[in-house]
Amino acid sequence: MHNDQALLRRLEEVLIKGKPGLHAQLKMVPLPRPGQAVYTDVEETSVKAGVMILLYRRQTAWHLVLIRRPSTVLHHKDQISFPGGQIEPGEDFIQAALRETREEIGVPSERLRILGELTPLFIPPSNFCIYPVVAAADGPLSFTPQEEEVAEVIEVPLDHLLDPDTAHEETRTIRGETVSVPFYAHGGHKIWGATAMVLAEFLDVVRST
What we know:
By secondary structure, the protein is an alpha+beta fold. It has a single domain (2-159, 194-207), classed as Alpha-Beta Complex (Nucleoside Triphosphate Pyrophosphohydrolase). Helix content is 25%, strand content 34%. The chain has helices at residues 2-17, 22-25, 93-105, 158-162, 193-207; strands at 47-58, 61-68, 80-81, 84-86, 112-117, 121-123, 128-137, 152-157, 167-174, 177-186, 189-192. The longest helix has 16 residues, at 2-17.
């Protein structure tokens, strides 16, 4: 536990001092990029959402939780994402990320320690700008997914994501265009797009601790 607390303190320090930013995110961007705008360009016009990068212990290893969206949602159908959603009136992005984590996967906000924030990321196809919040749980977690928003809960060991062999690339046709898509592979899942870009920055933060 002592080493765990030391890691969390180091993560807090890195997130306060300075984040890797867009340079790290672009390691996992599909090419050609779907637009060149960054979050500072669209602060007044984008739809803002808070998302949760949640660290927790499962047995002896750190894990992150991701979710697969169902095919019935309006945006990002069938895609793998972090728990999160649109910021509601009167909320900031941390409050939104905590609320959505509670609603979507049943994790109480009081179980979580906020460590900091990553760099916001604009998603041109949906006009969403996501604000990633990094938090750690005070112990093991269990999840109660909200069926309307979550088709599957995916628990990913942090060490697996840190392994360079987890990152791959493939060619897809997206909106009629041939695109080179980098992704993280886990258990038959392909974690790509905005989720992979946020993960790339987070993993660089972890490596720097």
